[in-house]
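(Structure overview)
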Amino acid sequence: MAKIDGEALLQRLPPVAGRLEANAALADLTWFRVGGPAEVLFTPADEADLAQFLNATPEDIPVYVIGVGSNLLVRDGGVPGVVIRLGRGFAGLEVEDEHRIRVGTAVPDMRLARFAADNGIDGLTFLRGIPGTIGGALRMNGGAHGGETRDVLVEARAVDRKGTITVLNNADMGYSYRHCGAPEGLIFTAALFQGRPGRIEDIIAAMDDITAKREASQPIRTKTGGSTFKNPPGQKSWQLIDKAGMRGHILGGARVSDMHCNFLINEGGATAADIENLGELVRRRVRETSGVDLEWEIKRIGLPSEGGA
């Protein structure tokens, strides 16, 4: 197995206006708090810096993008290639005409929901229930509490692996349930969302209701990665997991949440392998009891540890 060697990789990368860091720890950048390092972590200064980097980076070097790590599992062996994490240069928020908001993809979904509320713009309230960034919402058609990204997206701006900037309209995104049909190589940098007029007090009350429901039903104050598996058509993953007798099941330092069994939790000291193996055990038990093959919603990247799973 190839080892992570960020210093050697740095020699093959172009100069940037942002920051390049070799052998960068990723565990503290994910909600699970597990996983190995990035061979190189790149924080671009802005869209132009990102585009120039992608254009000048050899195509044989793999590139991954992460947000706040809320729905991500980094494997213990680390991530070969370059991990890109968008920061301040992608954090803009601006109200436009016709109750529209233009937003950078590093902005947390919850922050956009609050910004919309403060400006009397309704229709984006559902984003209060998604613990990720706008980039993640675009990439997986993020949704919660009866709303989805495809319901409000006007257009998304992105950079491809050659550094070319493109704009995709809603139809170009190829959205379906928790899926985006846009090419995987695109890195989203900004988006334009359509809202509608609303009373600030009513919008904030609706968001408070979403927050209360999340806190009452989900283990959001634990080291978790959010919903682990997509809901199969016409069914709920948590019900299938419960039926399989997996609620509260423990493997190493990982546990299936007792509160909401479509959440996996790092109980403390878990490895990424513990969490992934527990997830695969859940999938196997659900297949045995219900004949359903659950699909991972959590994104998994990187290599297993040497000698590990």
Remarks:
- The chain has a mean pLDDT of 95.
